[in-house]
Design goal:
heterotetramer, A: about 350 residues, alpha/beta, Rossmann fold, 6-stranded parallel β-sheet, about 40% helix, about 10% strand, B: about 325 residues, 2 domains, binds thiamine diphosphate, binds magnesium ion
């Protein structure tokens, strides 16, 4: 009997829930307060956007919405290391990363408001980004295809793609890891382990001790970080992105957080969530600890907080206004993007739809 | 006896059969503590325990594959696919195995399983939550595909589906999950699979539909009656295998047909019904066969979904055109 | 200019376009050193290198998913699914994404990709290697589904498929891979997608088919001619979107139709064609619409496969019945 | 940074290619010569059956056939630990295990001869076994379902399922591992790593160092054994089966061998196989080394070898005769097993098929 392979999974956290650094030797960003303040503001933007979305949904102005409350450090953290020409392949709870990579708040609302224009990102930075893929885990494979194109063209770009811990049970996720491994693709796989897949707790999802170790099945690098610690997320993502862009291949980063909200506006987590979990969770959430850290370093104050909130809420409100004021697409929009050129038979149906629309 | 909705009827049927038959187990994503995202399995885990009402990991191929393995051992799995838009990862198991294991083994291994999935549009859901792709499974020999259109049929057909010795894909028209209530005796009486229901007798035209569109179709029949047109209404209910005999009988009587479906038009179930009539009942036809359907395009995001779906007025209009055809 | 088979024509078209367009890459299981299990990609890896002719791991969902990602970046992937029976793990990507990404993003991201797969029976292959399930993809708006029936069409249609800005499912009738040879100029001239080919003009009946069954259908037309029946023969070629206009024109002329398909009858492409005629061309019909097809059962293991497949004599018989119908 | 999980993969071999034991403390079976002789004969049966199948195929009497040459120790080894009431869920190259668990040689020929009766196993032991699933990796999930039924019924049985190393790239394989892990199912997953997936070498299949480690992604036990060493295969399978039957959950066993034949009769491996590989491979094959070991222990001889070959070849020939003499099923057999009860419409088609058949 011989040992032919050995593996270990590392867990990284720099900033604890009290906003204290756990090491004397933190990554550079820990001292880059301008950057941290920006990231703090970006996380707050996502938090406030979610709040606004809930308000819109509750007043019948938006469809089902999936908030990222409690998971802001993940998306903001990793997407903040992305270059303009890197590509994001998000999942439905990926609005933090999407907005960070140039998608507008209005587009986020449009998507959940039942309007395809929410997938037609106007910002140059997001032009090549994928829209949300609703069928879980399919996005992981699309990300590998994007990375394969970059590799064939010899480009120094990389791809980030995110998935929930529940989504890792899908075969597509594994197939993506495997092909990324054997083809040495520049993809960074982010697992948002918020510990719930709708009502199914992580403990019913897999017998794995960590989600990071799923990458061992593909022979690719992996690690676990505290997903409530934006410094840890940022640092891990930064290294992985550089590696990916320089032909070093894929990385899986499991970010442990907690879903501090219902699954979506259509869900009622009180049906299945154990008592006390939320209370405990709120103590560890990512904004609070970063604010504490900034405050402890005299970088933040109530005044700055209020200024910042005013700014992000104005931004959100103006996006919400645009969203609400945007007229629905005409009926023919159902047809106009189906193919480059619409076949004869469907053209006739397009006319029927227009005629019906005109009658209303 | 209280009046219940279609989804409550699905729930009641599963509970009834789980009580009767220890081999019946229910599983899927969120069917346990949560009782299903639409509450189809509400209360079942409390009643029957975690061993028989099982929250699965998030993987549809796995759900179908596990159902096959269990059923081959003689159990009676009732598996939920959360939305029909997510059935495609399971397509290989459904098409390549569910439909074939009995045939492949010359009857040695059989699959008394049910795969349930809510389908269809109209509830303002996100993309991939609103499609009507039943035609795909209606084309696969070896499957049974059943779609109830009201609470009573949901109860009776679900019982029949669970009891059936062969795999049944049970598609639930979620738009009408809660739209009407029926008083249903919880007596375990099933309805037959493989037969169409004649919902309303008529002499001038045969309206044929299934699932949620039955709702519009029945209303259209009312309106047509008010206009002096006597419409016979058929609820296909089992779309595979198709009970074409009942349809041909009706066409022999009325000579005119309008098929109503939510799915895109090309290559859908309505095409098969029309083709059968064009082959076997054409001599009785007094007019072209009409199909009122969704468009041959992708189901739009919800803000435009109403523009996609056939409405009562479209059925009435098409039916009148057909009735007036000379 | 030498005479080549259908599969050689597929190969020649891919080679032509790879030479012209650096964005074209070919990948799939065993397409590299082995040149594909049917040799469709024979010699391509030698010519274009391992970077552009890529052996993938064994995973069809992955193959389709990777094609989507690459195409969204503007490359032109030509992916092979080794047999159509193994396309179902990729069904989700094809149905939920290939058919939809352009629409979903309002044209921002498009998918100029091709997914090739050999399909159909008659080569004594094991289970899951012989089915004809093209109807599934013919029902999906947003896809193009193309089936060549002879070497020239394979060359021209494959070129068009690669050049098309939208996803094309390219199904190759493997039974006729090597059954006939055409002299084809390797000049890069494509054939149009989305149109039927009228292979033979006639006045008494319209025979409609596609893929391998065109072979039997053409022979049936010959036999019918010998019997004094003038058959028009249509090769559908692009089964989605369907060029119904050409078919209706022919029916207007002949008044009689026989559709020939290898797939099971219920809910297949033939049903859609019949339904369209029953809706839009019925006034020209002089007889019921006939469908000669495989049976509504599972494609048997190969010892019985001949019993499953329509033969020339069945087409002749059905065509005569239709022509004689009064 | 902390280490939160550690894994290692063990490799086991007892009998080397010269038939010498590598340890003084081998498993019991190494001294159970009656058992070893039986296993040797069973491997020879598979080898000879494959030869016969090729002969039948080459003379037009059989369809495409996938031989297991060089991999006999895997199927014979693990299936020999199966109880009668354990269930086998095989793959298409699984004839060694199938025959070991009661499938007749005639049934193997029928399957590849294009006759469904080859899946209607008559031996009681195989009555609940699955037939070959042609779509790769689907069988892995069926195996978990069978095991789930056993678990729910509280039965002390287990399930064995086999897959090629290429097949491990499929999502289904991973989904099966994952659900077996979280539900603690009594399944033993055998990976037949014969180093080729048709023409695709293992080196293009995955970046994993071992296939065993794929189980780490599901949190289940795993190990690697020399698949040419039937003692190692048997021992690993024995332990895994006992564990599985007693509620200990699943195990993955990677068996390393080499495909000493073409992929199937339809393949020509000389197109892609590197020179010399076969020659090297034949030195390590499983029968030879066991024979050497038996001979070194005075348990085998030329005479016994010839007697044994005569016996297995007679068995094979009589099965081949039965296969060849079995009339094809009538056309209506296409319909008679589609549903428990055939629908009206299909009944009519059945009559058409019968009438056509009668004409021929
Ligand atoms: C293929 C597929 N199956 C099911 C669903 C329905 N669904 C939406 S979210 C969800 C749970 C996802 O959990 P997880 O992956 O942990 O992500 P989270 O929502 O927690 O961010 C499910 C089952 C889906 N969208 N796609
Ligand atoms: C889903 C699916 N895709 C493709 C095939 C075609 N195919 C048959 S065998 C094979 C290679 C399998 O290799 P491996 O899993 O290593 O098993 P081996 O044949 O080496 O025993 C392929 C691609 C198939 N049968 N099923
Ligand atoms: Mg989650
Ligand atoms: Mg192999």
């Amino acid at each position: 009997m011989t040992i032919v392979a050995k593996f270990e999974i590392k867990y990284t956290q720099y900033l604890d829930e009290n906003g204290e650094l756990l090491t004397n030797n933190p990554p550079a960003i820990a001292k880059d307060f301008d950057c941290l303040k920006k990231l703090y503001r970006d996380m707050a933007l996502v938090r406030q956007m979610d709040i606004k979305a809930y308000a819109l949904q509750r007043t019948g102005k938006l469809g089902t919405y999936a908030a990222a409350t409690g998971q802001e450090a993940i998306g903001v953290g990793y997407a903040s290391v992305m270059n303009h020409d890197d590509v994001l392949v998000p999942y439905y709870r990926g609005q933090a990363a999407m907005v960070q990579h140039g998608v507008s708040v209005e587009e986020v609302f449009l998507f959940w408001g039942g309007d395809e224009r929410g997938c037609d990102f106007k910002n140059e930075m997001a032009k090549q980004d994928f829209p949300i893929a609703v069928p879980i885990a399919t996005q992981s494979l699309h990300a590998t295809g994007v990375a394969k194109a970059m590799q064939l063209r010899g480009e120094k770009r990389c791809v980030f793609t995110e998935i929930g811990e529940g989504g890792t049970s899908q075969g597509d996720f594994y197939e993506a890891l495997n092909v990324a491994g054997i083809w040495n693709l520049g993809v960074v796989f982010i697992v948002n382990n918020n510990q719930w897949a709708i009502s199914v707790p992580s403990g019913l999802q897999t017998a794995c001790k960590t989600y990071a170790q799923k990458a061992i099945a593909a022979g690719i690098d992996c690690q676990q970080v505290d997903g409530n610690d934006i410094i840890a997320v940022h640092e891990a993502a930064l290294k992985a992105a550089e590696k990916a862009r320089n032909g070093g291949g894929p990385t899986l980063i499991e970010c442990i957080s907690l879903r501090l909200c219902d699954h979506t506006t259509a869900d009622d987590a009180s049906r299945y969530r154990p008592d006390g979990e939320l209370e405990e969770g709120w103590k560890k959430e990512p904004l609070l600890r970063l604010r504490k850290y900034l405050e402890a370093n005299s970088q933040w104050s109530e005044v700055l907080e209020n200024e910042m909130l005013t700014e992000v809420n104005q931004l959100i409100q103006s996006n919400a206004d645009n969203y609400e004021n945007l007229a629905a697409q005409p009926p023919e929009a159902m047809f106009d993007y189906l193919y480059a050129e619409l076949p004869e038979r469907t053209l006739q149906q397009r006319e029927v739809a227009m005629a019906r629309g005109a009658k209303q | 006896m209280k009046a219940i909705t279609l989804i409550e009827a699905v729930n009641m049927a599963m509970a009834y059969e789980m009580t009767q038959d220890k081999e019946v187990v229910v599983f899927g994503e969120d069917v346990g503590a949560n009782g299903g995202v639409f509450r189809a399995t509400d209360g079942l885990q409390e009643k029957f325990g975690e061993a028989r009402v099982i929250d699965t990991p998030l993987a549809e191929a796995m759900i179908a594959g596990v159902a096959i393995g269990m059923a081959a051992q003689g159990m009676k799995p009732v598996a939920e696919i959360q939305f029909m838009g997510f059935i495609f990862p399971a397509a290989d198991h459904i098409i390549s195995h569910c439909a074939r294991l009995r045939n492949r083994t010359r009857g040695r291994l059989t699959l008394p399983l049910v795969i349930r999935a809510p389908y269809g549009g109209g509830i303002h859901a996100p993309e991939n939550h609103s499609e009507s792709t039943e035609a795909i499974f209606a084309h696969i020999p070896g499957l049974k595909v059943v779609i109830p259109s009201n609470p009573s049929r949901a109860y009776g057909l679900m019982l029949a589906a669970i009891r059936d010795p062969d795999p049944v894909i049970f598609l639930e028209p979620k738009r009408v999950y809660r739209i009407e209530k029926h008083e249903i005796e919880d007596d375990g009486e099933d309805y037959p699979l493989g037969v169409c229901f004649v919902d309303r007798e008529g002499t001038d035209i045969t309206l044929i539909s299934w699932g949620a569109m039955m709702h519009e179709t029945r209303q259209a029949a009312e309106k047509l009656a008010a206009l002096g047109v006597s419409a016979e209404v058929i609820d296909v209910a089992t779309i595979n295998p198709l009970d074409i005999a009942t349809i041909l009988d009706s066409v022999a009587k009325t000579g005119r047909v309008c098929i109503v479906q939510e799915a895109p038009k090309a290559g859908a179930l309505g095409s098969e019904i029309a083709a059968e009539i064009a082959e076997k009942g054409i001599m009785n036809l007094l007019a072209p066969i009409g199909r009122v359907s969704g468009f041959d395009t992708v189901m739009p995001y919800y803000r435009l979904e109403k523009q996609f779906m056939p409405k009562v007025e479209h059925i009435v209009e098409e039916a009148r055109r057909i009735v007036e055809y000379k």
